[in-house]
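Pinned message: reference record for ribose-phosphate diphosphokinase
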Amino acid sequence: MSSHPLRIFTGSAHPQLAIEIADILGVPLGRSTTRHLPDSEIHVMIDENVRDQDIFLIQPCGEPVNDNFMELLLYLDAFRRASAHTVTAEIPYFPYARQDRMAKGRESISARVVATLLEAEGVNRVVFVDIHNPASQGYFNIPVDPLSAIPVLGEYFRRPEFADCAVVSPDVGRAGLAGKFAEFLNLPLVVMHKRRTNFQETRTTHVVGDIKGRRPIIIDDIIASGSVLKQIDILYDQGAEGKAYFAITHPVLLPPALGILANHERIEKLVVTNTLPVAPFKRSEKVEILSIAPLLADIVDRIHHGRSISERLVLS
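Predicted structure (tokens):
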């Protein structure tokens, strides 16, 4: 057991998630202040003593991505200068995760840049949830804990009413994630093959697996512009029945996705987690939000007390 006090702090990106985590652990949320100055610079201040303490900073980096990431870096610098014993960054939604390789010549590998900046500011450990490419943890030279929301989402679909479903991967890249989800639920797996035409648009070419007579549960890591929502008709061409469910970890939910979700008659519900805050205008009867806080709180407790977290990285 660590002899250093456990402290939970938050940036301004998602304070409600940090409050949930702190409440579960029974510790007060640390006091800090973020200000946005008139010239758009960000100023952060830690409002209490953190010397020789184990700090867990909760800061998903959703919209506005650059502001939230810069705030995270500034807090890391402030904690280091305030002589914190360790600082763990819990970044449920990792910024620039989809820019993880050079798809064309002369591109930046932006996810690697993010990792380099985090390490440069002295972070001791990084925790994230369902990162777009699991191999991105190799960008770090420090401990990284790649969590998955599959158990959280899976519990929702473990009810008997979903026994006639099939788990659908929207592309080959998500097949591993979908395969674990299908195993968790003891359901068949179907894989859609698609080709990306640009950053916003993709096109499904064919389906592998038997979807006939089954309701689809499409699983993915991120829903942003909602291209995956538009591609389910091919499943019904292959014999799918009933309305489709989506199980997606990170609810970026840009306006095009909200429009498709509201108007597509074959979509029953979008089930997401609160790795990102979901603004009121993004909520509807079709959107179900599950809390990731119990998982993140358990990881904080395990790290602080030096216990293994491997059992939380593998589905039971």
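Pinned by admin. Summary line: Residues 65-81 form the longest helix (17 residues).
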